[in-house]
Amino acid sequence: QVQLVESAGGLVQPGGSLRLSCAASGSIFSIDLMGWYRQAPGKERELVATITSGDTTNYADSVKGRFTISRDNAKNTVYLQMNSLKPEDTAVYYCNVQGHRSTYYRRYDSWGQGTQVTVSS
Questions:
Q1: Are 3 and 110 within 8 A, CB to CB?
Q2: pLDDT digits (tens, 9 = 90+) for 44-96
Q3: Which pick of 36, 78, 91, 103 has the fewest CB atoms within 10 Å?
Q4: 21, 23, 27, 22: which is closest to 2 by C-alpha?
Q5: Residue 116 belongs to what H/E stretch?
Q6: In sequence order, what DSSP letters do the residues of 29-93 get, joined into one string?
Q7: Range 25-64 burial, b when 16+ CB lie within 10 A, else e
Q8: How many other C-beta atoms can be found within 10 angstroms of the C-beta atom of residue 105?
Q9: SS3 for 10?
Q10: pLDDT at 102
């Protein structure tokens, strides 16, 4: 299986910054898509940002210009740099990685454990 380990979130003041990381491990042949989702209390999980194997990025309108997604292929790691944080960014952030496993070239769709990001004074 492909496992994901996310870095810890934290409490950040409005306007502050935080970087999340997510490292994938296991029988990985390829990572085709990496992304970040978030879920606030009482709301459904929503897409924050994605990055393809070709470094094509996609952002939710609510975070565009403030968040940056990037990846380190050698480390099988995806990052989310969050700047100018707002209280509405408060949520549990989940990493998502999709691709193919080395064994039998099976597809996988793995999720991180989730990490709490709280933006508050």
A1: yes
A2: 999 999 999 999 999 999 999 999 999 999 999 999 999 999 999 999 999 99
A3: 103
A4: 27
A5: strand 115-119
A6: EEEEEEEEEEE-TTS--EEEEEEETT--EEE-TTTTTTEEEEEEGGGTEEEEEE-S--GGG-EEE
A7: eeebeebebbbbbbeeeeeeeeebbbbeeeeeeebeeebe
A8: 9
A9: strand
A10: 87
